[in-house]
């Protein structure tokens, strides 16, 4: 078959998610936690490694199962457009061997919310390829939504003031 007769490879599917979550802690505390590798490592489901490699750079390893595909992803994260303590852009790229790849960016913005809470808005644009792209956007989107829900449940629990702190406030 002549190369021109082969179908062009389809571009990697793009996933987009935008949500706002209310975190039961003051913006300064949320900002601090969003910039603490040990906090993020404890909150990201399947995160095995998250270590700082530079001023705004990190290396990560994460195990994930999306539909029938299980993989360990090794990746790099970079913070850009950092405006303490209100926003940054997190750029990521990860390789999962035969399972494929994921890369993209997440824009994160914090704002005060009623009740000493923080409104955290994030907008993620990501591309996946390899086996991940073949399993369908519905499964990938569902797995991403579950990952976000699990992360924010753990994150909120971790940064919320202890009951004694809340009583004093």
What does this structure look like?
The chain has 169 residues and is of the alpha+beta class. It is 28% helix and 46% strand. Helix 2 crosses helix 4 (137-159). It is globular and about 45 Å long. The model is unreliable at 6-10 (pLDDT under 50).
Task: Give a short overview.
The chain has helices spanning 27-34, 37-43, 131-134, 137-159, 163-168, and strands at 14-23, 47-54, 57-66, 69-83, 87-95, 101-113, 117-129. It is an alpha+beta fold and 169 residues long.
What's the layout of helices and strands?
Blueprint: E1 14-23, H1 27-34, H2 37-43, E2 47-54, E3 57-66, E4 69-83, E5 87-95, E6 101-113, E7 117-129, H3 131-134, H4 137-159, H5 163-168
Antiparallel strand pairs: 1-7, 2-3, 3-4, 4-5, 5-6, 6-7
Helix pairs in contact: 2-4
**Secondary-structure element pattern, one letter each:** EHHEEEEEEHHH
Total beta strands: 7
Give the integer mean of the pLDDT values.
88
- Overall radius of gyration: 18 Å
* Class from helix and strand fractions: alpha+beta
Q: Major sheet: order of its strands?
A: 1-7-6-5-4-3-2
Which runs of at least 5 residues are low in confidence (pLDDT < 50)? Answer: 6-10
In whole angstroms, the N-to-C terminal distance is 73 Å
Q: Major beta sheet, specifics? A: 7 strands, antiparallel
Number of helices: 5
Tell me the β content.
over 45%
The proportion of residues forming helix, as a percent range, comes to 25-40%
The rough form would be described as globular
């Amino acid at each position: 078959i002549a190369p021109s007769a082969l179908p062009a490879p389809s571009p990697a599917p793009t996933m987009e998610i935008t949500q706002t979550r209310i975190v039961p802690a003051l913006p300064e505390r949320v900002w601090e936690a969003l910039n603490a590798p040990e906090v993020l490592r404890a909150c990201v489901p399947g995160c095995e490694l998250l270590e700082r490699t530079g001023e705004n750079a990190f290396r990560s390893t994460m195990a994930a199962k999306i539909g029938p595909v299980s993989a360990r992803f090794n990746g790099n994260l970079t913070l850009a457009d950092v405006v303490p303590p209100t926003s940054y852009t997190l750029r990521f790229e990860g390789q999962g061997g035969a399972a494929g790849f994921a890369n993209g960016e997440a824009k994160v913005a914090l704002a005060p919310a009623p009740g000493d809470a923080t409104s955290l808005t994030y907008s993620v644009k990501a591309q996946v390829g390899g086996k991940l792209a073949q399993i369908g956007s519905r499964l990938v989107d569902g797995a991403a939504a579950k990952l976000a829900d699990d992360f924010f449940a753990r994150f909120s629990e971790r940064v919320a003031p202890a009951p004694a702190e809340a009583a004093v406030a």
